[in-house]
Amino acid sequence: MQKFIIAGRKPLSGHIAVSGDKNTALKIIPACVLVPGTTRLTNVPVIEDVGVMIELLKGIGGTAVSSDDQHTWEISTKNITTSTLPEKLVTRARASSMFAGPLLARFGEVHLRHPGGDVIGERPLDLLLEGLTAMGAQVTQGDRTYHIKAKRLRGAKFVFRRVSVTVTENLLLAAVLADGVTELSNAAMEPGVIALAEFLNQRGAKIQGAGSPTIKITGVKHLTEKSAEFAIIPDRIEAGTFACLAAATHSPIEITNCEPAHMDVFIKHLELAGVSIKRGAASLSIRPAKKLRAIEVVTHEYPGFATDYQAPMTVLLTQAEGVSLVHETIFEGRLFYTDKLKQMGARIIMADPHRVIINGPSNLRGRKIISPDIRAGIALVIAGFVAEGTTTIGNIYQIDRGYEKIDERLRGLGADIQRVETDYF
Ligand code: EPU
After folding, report:
1. What is the dihedral of CA 64, 21, 92, 350, to 10 degrees?
2. pLDDT over 90 for what percent of the chain?
3. Which residues sit with their C-beta closer than 6 Å to ligand 1?
4. Distance from C-alpha of 392 to C-alpha of 383, rounded to nearest angstrom
5. Is the pTM of this model over 0.90?
6. pLDDT tens, residue by residue, 33-47
7. How many degrees, rounded to 5, is the angle at CA 213 between CA 279 and CA 217?
């Protein structure tokens, strides 16, 4: 077990480069199941969740060889022999369900367990099962197990009753080799969906409309071998996390290797909060704000304010003058970490599981706390830098799931953060 020990209130400055997007990498790896030959992926982040997806791929017979720095992977799925995903790994990553669509399309059946992942609220698979059923699959459910069968999937019109990122991507993968045309309506529009469609189109798929609410997929017999490599897009959530860190600690920080065009609504909120931001083509420069102002934040599907920015933004708002409201609309369990901010001295009232009211600014003090999930975990790291004294954060495995060598990279900004082995917390 490891923990972080953070000494707060140290001046931070300099630049920090953004990694490849976790949530795109987690979809492109299973997409390789549909691709003949070898796929070369670059700009892959070195994080726990990617490690689990690679292990899953190997667990069903795929091969994956990395460069020394593990940012480039060569993946071949030629020798996949089973469509039963190893149970132990499935429960370690929510994204494991992303293998369902491609395995079903290629082998006509898939066995999987209900996936694990963050403890941020109920995360059912009902939409995925509905979508695959609409495409002709038969689903047999056991005790948190699913056996999904379809000799050949057929194109269908599927209307999402609520927007889902992974289900949009999963159905996209299922539909690529289906008979006929599939139309996904009220689909997710995240940059990762566009990247996945581009990856597949480059390899012979026929997908139109990714990035809009209606995606049309015309099934093809098979994808083609393509030697060109594919670069994972920059992680907009990591970039936003660094922006919140810079703003909350009043530090001049330049965030490089990012895609500001994916962050418009987030940047708008930062500006409303009084943060001064200079946009470059692939960078964001954050300058210390004269005064941070309270704002209202309502999380929303892309292109709205992403739920994954919510926790870092909440920490920033503990330093803003006035009363802020944070309304988390996507997940019902994603505000409970605010209890830990309260232990550190933040003045936060939970109105209900979806809304907190923040009175700022408040003087945060270092405390011993446990990281509950990826985004709340990194938010607590930011709180540690804002706070007076020492903050100890346990269960940092959760943070490593989504942020590559975060302590090392933050030390590059002058941060005092140590990773320490521990038997207990
Ligand atoms: N939902 C259902 N039924 C389903 C699927 C989803 O009711 O079958 C509900 C969920 O419970 C949630 C809402 O729909 O309330 C939206 O969930 P969505 O399916 O969009 O989330 P996801 O695809 O499981 C991805 C990201 C999350 C990110 C959300 C929202 C991946 C691997 N995960 O999750 O990322 O918060 O979209 O944008 O892409 C993270 O990176 O920390 C993270 C949790």
Report:
1. 180
2. 87
3. 22-23, 26, 94-95, 118, 122-128, 162, 164-167, 306-308, 330-331, 374-375, 402
4. 11
5. yes
6. 999 989 999 999 999
7. 115
